[in-house]
Amino acid sequence: MKLTKLLALGLVVGIAGWWWLGPVVNGPGADPDTTPAVPVPVPAPSDPAALVAPTRAAPAAMASSAAPAAPLTLAPAAAPARPADGNGLLLPVQGITAAQLQDTFTDARSEGRVHDAIDILAPAGTPVLAVADGTIEKLFNSDRGGLTVYQFEPGGRYCYYYAHLERYADGLAEKQTVTRGQVIGYVGSTGNASPEAPHLHFEIHTLGPEKHWWEGASLNPYPVLRGEQRLP
Length: 232
Prior knowledge:
The protein is α+β, with helices and mostly antiparallel strands.
């Protein structure tokens, strides 16, 4: 009887202790197999940034959205410089400088004539250049001048005369427009020039109202070609 009471008392004490000291959920001694998992927060659908997975930026060299390089712009070529004297006349023999010119304007010639021109010595075949823009007024072959060119300037005030040419430039024709520096012929010794001294005989004439290529008052080309004097 005493044993039965002791067993009943132990059972009551055990049940009471179990009820009072039951297992603590998530406590320091909690069993990992029975501990409930902590829920992970899910971003709300209204937050678009939270639904987009982060991506790694592409290298700059491979980015297709890189701005194209600006096109290279070339500066226009500079126009040929004009002489400082303002008349725009070019030395008519290629490769000859102003320092090489000699003033032969007043030199005596046969039959009491005065030269009225400048002789520019150069090897035969040296290109002869138009001294200014203008028009080929006359191509003429004379006893004294040989193969010659008469060029009018656009305003019709002056005529430029080139003589003793070896030959004309290919395609040169009367009434043809030429530009300053254009090859119009080649140095020679045709006419009464000496074959031992090929040269260009060059004259400047002021034209009268009739605009005759064979008439006009002569001007000394020497100071004009040297840049020391303007055309009047």
